[in-house]
Specification:
The structure is a homodimer of 516-residue chains.
Chain A lengths: L2 H22 L4 H17 L2 H4 L17 H20 L3 E2 L5 E3 H4 L21 E3 L4 H10 L5 E10 L13 E10 L6 H17 L4 E7 H10 L7 H8 L7 H10 L5 H11 L2 E2 L1 H8 L8 H19 L6 E4 L12 E7 L3 E3 L2 E3 L3 E7 L16 E6 L1 H13 L12 E5 L5 H13 L4 E3 L7 H10 L4 E5 L1 H5 L2 E6 L5 E5 L3 H10 L3 H5 L4
Parallel strand pairs in A: 1-4, 6-8, 14-15, 14-16
Antiparallel strand pairs in A: 2-3, 4-5, 5-13, 6-9, 7-8, 9-12, 10-11, 12-13, 16-17, 17-18
GO molecular function (chains A, B): ATP binding; histidine-tRNA ligase activity; RNA binding
InterPro entries (chains A, B): aa-tRNA-synth_II, aa-tRNA-synth_II/BPL/LPL, Anticodon-bd, Anticodon-bd_dom_sf, His-tRNA-ligase, HisRS-like_core, HisRS/HisZ, HisRS_anticodon
EC number (chains A, B): 6.1.1.21
Chain lengths: 516, 516
């Protein structure tokens, strides 16, 4: 904006004020016309781009959105519940920058790398926005030579994907990650990740779910046993991963036509990936003629068997399904992989919303080593909660009136029925703020009493302090209960104390409304 | 990473395991040598880029940093205190995307626009990272046609500035913004912003401070009175803004040589910008021969006078200084401007750290209108807390051992002195987690007792549940107090109840260590 334009805008504002005042005081039409013509003359001086300042569509970037106060209340509530579970399991909190050197991300995501956002080369380093929180964690561990860490990280990640915003698929979205790094005994941290997911989904109470588990070594073994060449394991894997969105026939066609798998091999894979179950399925596959001959398949199956045992000790076995069709797209997984899926659509009003996958993760033992000059490995396992889908369900419930939220926590509104009480209101506000009481007042000099009380009702503020001349002379003020409309007089000196007692006695659950 | 390379890495890992096992079981040297040579042969197959995977320097992008667990604990503590004050004043929480359409940011920051990070054009929209939280707020208000809002926003912003990281100047840094939008009576919301800043700085307790205030209308009037042409007001203003880093002589030279101000005008400005004080200075300037003739100067002075009156009602007048040298660089301010400055260096060990400005803001009545097709204005005023400088002070204190932090909140560690107790430990952990108790255990099958107790001591975990065969047979477990080393036996059925009583009785202040 040009500097003189800014001053011109000021002048237009001033002239507008003059016109408004004349109109308000019902001056003669001639006088008003004269000032209006001055105003129009000033506006004519505005450059075209200032007169119509908005030349572009006013919107957020494709696939992104603002969070308004109600959405933020829901979001903060969900993230708090997730954080509580992470902390219950002793995880530390970490944060990394939103962008990384592009080299850090290169070669970590397989086919999905094309979805990475790059920054413009403005001189200096070549940077990209983070695509997930896992690769930055691996970079952090390698850079600081840390061998042992349990951390959580809640932050936004960026993918130039095809957004489907009504279903909670964005280009900027939150991930809530929990990872355990270190050389430990088999499946002990892996099982805890599953326990963490169950605790989070139970705390969020958004419906029935299953946790699907599988093992990359078993997938490799299965591909080997079915005659897929080793160099096609990963790409075949990423095709199997599409089974939740495509039919087996479509997946089979892609395997044969795009991944170069023979029809015979594809058909053999098809037999396996239809299987799911529990320990009995593991036993059956351990006895399977083809798989039992393949070292990595046996290793994977033994891993799943141990994992299921630990899940049974954790009391979560009824929520776990061993599913051979689970593949996970990302390149970096090396061991167990998991995915949490809601098993029933969520009813919102008269509509049903299918949510599908809401958490996923697995073991990635080689990722840290890719950043180490001596290829030193730090084995890792972790899980990521896909909260956007949870947000979108709750927001739909909010829109349908099934839940309600309060967007502020104000307990007291300082009001006055009379004119010229701004100074007194300000003094009382400062007194309450300094005592730690959440307080608001009108920013107008002489607000109407009705407007003030309406503000309290609309915003769920439980109490109003009402100032009046007669009361102030006697050294008292009124406290009004907004819901019951009951009013009590208290000495000004006791105001803080009285309010604190009343606030402590509030039933918060009712005040803040049910969330979820 | 090529797919077959991933499999090769697996094979190398397996072969490595074989070699380690042979060495551990003290097999013959020949046998070990044979397996080592196999290992080396596998490693030789690695492509050069895999054998030395780290071809680039392992670092975060220039001007950015990771936050480790201790830094995050400090950061979350500071942000929580700030959030509490924002909520105490009834602000709602909003969030906007990290990037905006480039057009949204264009023309809002004057000379600083060159510091904006752009995203690469990968097809589709042209995007930039947000430079502050104020312009996205204005875009949000205009886009949603909101006339009235009190919101806070805590998020990272991005500036391609010259970083000085030891002093808390980064390219990615937090801003904590509090803004009031709406048509209200003069200086009422403006004064509350100052009150909010004092409450935050008092809560953070990082030393004495002053809040400098000034008024853009007064600056404009002063420039006008000193003979600066109107089209040079804003650029002269951004030169005055440098007075906190440059001497008057340098500023004067820049005004004359770069901004085209006459030496005479510059000298007159020099007389004014040296002034600071309180209400008595306002009165003196209202009587000033030159300024009293200039409408905008009088308007600015009347504004400051009213603001100081409200600050006095709020009980914060002793912290406010009316300072004519305060200018603020950004283009969009139109009324009051403010800046909070620590008045004494902070002692850390034997060194003193000068912190300087830690908050700033002002009124920007024309910014929202720049996004509205009809140029409809929504007056706004707000303040932004520069927390990075506060973080850097606290981190320096942490490094000097003057404060300590605990990075997890774990209350109970489930331990065992005997081998093969993993299953029992897992069952107890699940029991405690399900009861909401923050619990950890070793991820090793057979951890040493000493290691487990050391972990508790190092991490400030107050209690250990110690499992033993003899006790379990009798249906009891031991609870050990890590600090006193006292042990009590409790029936397994009472474990949750007993632990909850003990945890509730903890003195948290001591446990978590002083922060700040």
């Amino acid at each position: 904006m040009a500097e003189d334009q800014n001053i011109l805008l000021e002048k237009i504002k001033e002239q507008g004020d003059i016109v408004r005042k004349l109109k308000a005081s019902k001056e003669s039409n001639d006088k008003i016309k004269e000032e209006v013509s001055k105003l129009l003359a000033l506006k004519a001086q505005l450059k075209p781009e200032e007169a119509t300042p908005q030349k572009f569509t006013l919107k957020t970037a494709k696939g992104t959105r603002d969070y308004n106060a109600q959405q933020m209340t829901i979001r903060n509530n969900v993230l708090q519940k997730i954080t509580n579970v992470f902390k219950k399991h002793g995880a530390e909190c970490l944060d990394t920058p939103v962008f990384e050197l592009k080299d850090v991300l290169t070669g970590k995501y397989g086919e999905d790398s094309k979805l990475i956002y790059d920054l413009k080369d403005q001189g200096g380093e070549i940077l990209s926005l983070r695509y997930d929180l896992t690769v930055p964690l691996a970079r952090y561990l390698a850079m600081n030579k840390i061998n042992n860490l349990k951390r959580y990280h809640i932050a936004k990640v960026y993918r130039r994907d095809n957004p489907a915003m009504t279903r909670g698929r964005y280009r900027e979205f939150y991930q809530c990650d929990y990872d355990i790094a270190g050389q430990f005994d088999p499946m002990v941290p892996d099982a805890e990740c599953l326990k963490v997911v169950t605790e989070i989904l139970d705390a969020l109470d958004i419906g029935r779910y299953v946790l699907k588990v599988n093992h990359r070594r078993l997938l490799d073994g299965m591909f080997e046993a079915c005659g897929v060449p080793a160099d096609k394991f990963r790409s075949t894997c990423s095709t199997v991963d599409k089974l939740d969105k495509m039919s087996w026939d479509e997946v089979r066609t892609e395997m044969i036509n795009e991944k170069g798998v023979t029809p015979d091999a594809a058909d053999q894979i098809g037999e396996y990936v239809r299987l799911n179950g529990g320990t009995e399925l593991v036993e059956k596959l351990l006895a399977d003629e083809k798989l039992s001959k393949c070292k990595s398949a046996v290793e994977g199956l033994e891993g799943i068997k141990l994992l299921l045992h630990f899940c049974s000790l954790f009391g979560i076995k009824d929520k776990i399904v061993f599913d051979l069709s689970l593949a996970r797209g990302l390149d970096y997984y090396t061991g167990v992989i998991y995915e949490a899926v809601l098993t029933q659509p969520i009813k919102i009003g008269n509509e049903e919303q299918t949510v599908g996958s809401i958490a996923g993760g697995g073991r990635y033992d080689n990722l840290v080593g890719m950043f180490d000059s001596k290829n030193k490995q730090v084995p890792c396992v972790g899980v990521s909660i896909g909260v956007e889908r949870i947000f979108s369900v709750l927001e739909a419930k909010l829109a349908a009136g099934e839940i309600s939220v309060r967007t502020t926590e104000v307990d007291v509104y300082v009001a006055s029925a009379q004119k010229n009480f701004l100074d007194e209101r300000m003094k009382i506000c400062a007194q309450l703020w300094d005592a730690g009481i959440k307080t608001e007042q009108s920013y107008k000099k002489n607000p109407k009493m009705l407007t003030q009380l309406q503000h309290c009702e609309e915003n769920g503020i439980p109490f109003a302090v009402v100032l009046g001349e007669a009361e102030l002379k006697r050294g008292v003020v009124k406290i009004r209960n907004i819901i019951t409309r009951e009013e009590v007089e208290v000495p000004q000196d006791d105001l803080v104390q009285e309010l604190k007692v009343k606030i402590d006695a509030l039933d918060r659950k009712v005040m803040n409304g049910p969330v979820v």
